[in-house]
Structure formats: structure tokens, C-alpha cells
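Working notes for the structural subgroup meeting. M.R. asked for a predicted model of this chain before we commit to crystallization trials. I am recording the input and output together here so anyone reviewing the notebook later can reproduce the run.

Input as submitted:
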Amino acid sequence: MSNLTPFALGLGGGLTLWQLSRSSTTNTAPGNTGPATCLIQIDAAGITVGGARVDVAEAVRRAQKLGSALVTVGKDAPASTFAQLMDALRTANVATQMHAAASVLPRNAAPETKDFFTLVTYTRGIKDKPTVRYFRAESPIAWADARDRLAAAGLLELGLAGRTREPGGWMLSIDPKDFRSHRAEPLPGGARNSFISEIFTLAVYPEGVGGPKKVRWFKASRPTMWDAARDRLAAAGFLDGNANKPMDPGYWILVTSPEAFKEDRAEPLPNPKKRPRGVAHAQRFTLEGRTILRDGEAILYVDRVDLGDARYAISPHHADVLTQRMVRLLNRHGAR
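Returned structure, recorded in C-alpha cell form:
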């Protein structure tokens, strides 16, 4: 009887590994009579057995013939390929051992960064179809940072990484083959001025993810921050700002992707609520980072001229001071 011991291991690409071991020993040394082992390697290009590129079915066939498998997984191995291979080996009842390929990084080397991430969540375990969501970060970040931002937003439980047989188990992929840019949504936790657009697609799940979905398309009269559009839609009753988890009734997704937008079915983005008479008006011009807003809508972004070698024509501090002074002057003189 095999003894299966699962564990989660984070790789550079967010891959999840399971080690399966049997009480019987594996020995390939010359003159030994123990069972032979099929050496399988997974890297960015696919699966290799004995120096030859093979598909999942062929890799499993060779492993069955030899009686066991040793799978070496590179840090850039696609999560989808790994998952398919492991499922096939389990189904074929092949005793399997795992080995993460060694990766030697220069001292102080920065981790690999990406701006796209695919989250696969097994809401009810592996027996049901998983939920797949695609996230685009405002700039390239490390896999671990993306994971933590998704966890902070309540979209995954850190303790369920790779535990796809359990409800809520998940995998986070940086394989470009898994990503669907036209379905991408902003990665939670980014800077407030990261997404500015005139078009917004709102998908609402009245019964939570997995139930029916209602989609509406909104167009702003001028470029608008994503947060401002969300708040205006919430104030108008189009979305529930508290429905933040996939299983919450009324869970919603708001994206700015042109591929998701339908111009012919678009309606005007609701205007901000007017303040009651007699209520003091807040400053018309405000600041988010280095983006200047007028009545909550972005009108100007101050950037620095990059001279190379981490040198700029104006320092970060002076760029911040400049935008702050501009906002004060605009409010002081009642600019329109």
C-alpha cells in the first residue's frame, strides 16, 4: 500500500508540488535489482524524458513501464503542465517522487517579476470545475507580492495553497499560456491612481460566483479613476461595495479592458452625488500620488524625466512638492 504525503512548496513561478513516496525503495544503480525509475523533467518548454520531448501521455506510459517516476520541476515550469502530469501519474497509480530543480541566483538578485497572474480556485474541491480569474498588476511585481495582495483582498487563503482537493484550494500561475488579457481585472491592493479609463464593464453575480451573471457597460464623459467609477456605481446602487468575496451574493467585478467593452450597449457612468445646500464643499482639486484630480476625476499626471542609471531630471521629493503646490494654487484661485 502506498504512503502518500502531500506538501506545498512555493517555487519562483508559484508552482505547487506534491511529493508521493512509497515504502519500497527506488534504485537505478548498476547491478541493483530494485525497480527502475523514469526521470521526467518539466521546464518552460514542456516535458522531457530521456532527453526527448514528450507529451503527458507518453511520459506516463514510460513511467508505468519502469514502475516509478522522479519528476524534476524547473522554476519556470508551467503550472498547467505540472498539474496535468501529476493528475495523470496519480490516475495511473505510478509511485512518484518530486524534486525542485536547483536554481542558483546571484547574491542580492531580485525575484522574477510579472504583471499578469492567473488564479485558479477550487471553490468546492477538485471534483467541481474551478473558478479562474485573471489579474493585471499596475507594474511587474514578484509572485509572492501578488499572492499576498490577493490574500489581503480575501480572494484566497494562504493556508490552502495547492490543496486543490479541499474547498478553497488554489493555484496562482504566471504562465503566459494560462493568461487571458481580455478578461483581466486590476490586481487588488494597487495604487489608487493605477487605472484611469473612460470605459467600464461591470459584472455582478447576484448569487455569488458560480451562479448567474449580469453584465452592464458604462462610459464616462472624461477619463476617470477606477476607484471613482466604482464609488459612483455603488452610490447609484449598481454594485454592493461590501460584496468582496467570490461567494458573497452580489459579488462584482469591474474591469477597464477594451475587449470586454460593448460600445453599442454602453450607458453613461452615473454622475457623483451632489452635495446638499449649505454643506461646505471640499477642495475641488485633490491629489492621488502624482495625479491631480478635479472633482474626483484625473486631469493631470506629473511624471519624472528618466535620465538613466536611476537618475531623474527632478527628484522624487521635488516631484511631490511640485504637485502639492499646483493643487494648492488651483484651489486658492478657484480654477475651473
